[in-house]
Write a structure and sequence with these properties.
With about 325 residues, the chain is an all-alpha fold. Helices cover about 75% and strands about 0% of the residues. It is built from 17 helices and two strands. A two-stranded antiparallel ribbon has the order 1-2. A hairpin with a 2-residue loop joins strand 1 and strand 2. It is globular.
């Protein structure tokens, strides 16, 4: 199933989310609106707000109030995600995202960081309006853990001895945790029972992990046009992702040394050779297998939910997370 088809079951709600997002970007400071509109409207799958809507619908029948709350919660999740992107691009010194210049490349680091702060604080303003203490608790913990994941990734950069366990902890913290929070908050807003809340929380963590594993695979199998960013970005930043960790452990001695040196120096001088090393030693297949295991676990976690088009969309979203090319 294509992403557009997964969106179809909540198309009306998703349209309202997009409208509400734009209405919440208003500011008396023109530069905030300019950068906010630029980054928010710059493509993207909006998977995290989609997850809020699907989780809410899959876990309970929604009255009008719960529906409006789910739309606001989807916006909150998108604003938190977008603020992390703005900050990430500054930290990583990225110049391209989704095929366009990053905000920091276009306007500079300081405005990007500050607009990221604006989106983050606006998310919590909307959260107060929603009025769910449970969701506030969930997202307060979520954003704290995301920050911890970012710092741990910074520590891991340039360290070729990073373990698979440490790598997985980073992606579960900095990426999967927001998927988890999105799914759980959707269930909470819907008034779902504790069993359904736990099921969707687990689903979000598994899908988010699968999504990031495939994201790290794409750095070595996709083109810049497909990814919307430069090939080898992770390597240039010295990030020891799972394909590289596997190559150092299972590739030839020469391949392992090339990868180690590239991680330490953040150099792309041997990028083409390293891509061949990663592809030839089984690292791609190994990482894809790990992602498939996560997607399978995500689907299994939904077994307790009643059958519905929304549950089917969640299942298809798990499948899509490991089959995507961008």
């Amino acid at each position: 199933m294509q992403s557009t088809q997964i969106h179809d079951v909540v198309a009306s709600e998703f349209g309202q989310v997009n409208e509400y997002i734009m209405s919440q970007l208003t500011s008396d400071i023109p530069l905030i609106e300019q950068i906010g509109y630029y980054i928010i409207s710059n493509g993207g799958k909006r998977l995290r707000p989609l997850l809020v809507l699907l989780a809410a619908r899959a876990s309970n029948d929604l009255n009008d109030d719960a529906l409006q709350q789910s739309i606001k919660m989807a916006t909150i999740i998108e604003f938190i995600h977008t603020s992390t992107l703005l900050h990430d691009d500054v930290v990583d010194e990225s110049d391209m995202r989704r095929g366009k210049k990053t905000a920091n490349e276009e306007w500079g680091n300081a405005p990007s960081v500050l607009v990221g702060d604006f989106l983050y604080s606006r998310a919590f303003q909307i959260m107060v309006d929603v009025g769910s203490m449970q969701c506030m608790d969930i997202l307060a913990k979520t954003t704290n853990i995301i920050a911890e994941g970012e710092v741990q990734q910074l520590i891991n950069c340039g360290d070729p001895d990073t373990t698979e366990e440490s790598y997985l902890k980073v992606i579960q913290y900095k990426t999967a945790k927001l998927f988890e929070g999105a799914a759980l908050c959707g269930a909470v807003i819907a008034g779902a029972n504790t069993q359904y809340q736990q099921a969707l929380q687990d689903y979000g963590m598994y899908v988010g992990t699968a999504f990031q594993l495939i994201d790290d695979v794409m750095d070595y199998v996709s083109t810049a046009e497909e990814m919307g960013k430069s090939v080898g970005d992770d390597l240039s930043e010295g990030k020891p992702t799972l394909p590289l960790i596997y190559t150092m452990q299972n590739g030839t001695k020469e391949a392992a040394e090339r990868v180690r040196q590239a991680i330490v120096t953040g150099g792309l001088e041997q990028l083409d050779t390293i891509i061949q090393d990663v592809q030839s030693c089984g690292a791609i297949e190994f990482t894809q297998q790990r992602a498939q295991q996560q997607a399978d676990s995500a689907i299994k976690s939904l077994e307790c939910l009643p059958e519905s088009d929304y549950k089917t969309a969640l299942i298809n979203l798990a499948h899509a997370s490991v089959k995507r090319r961008n």
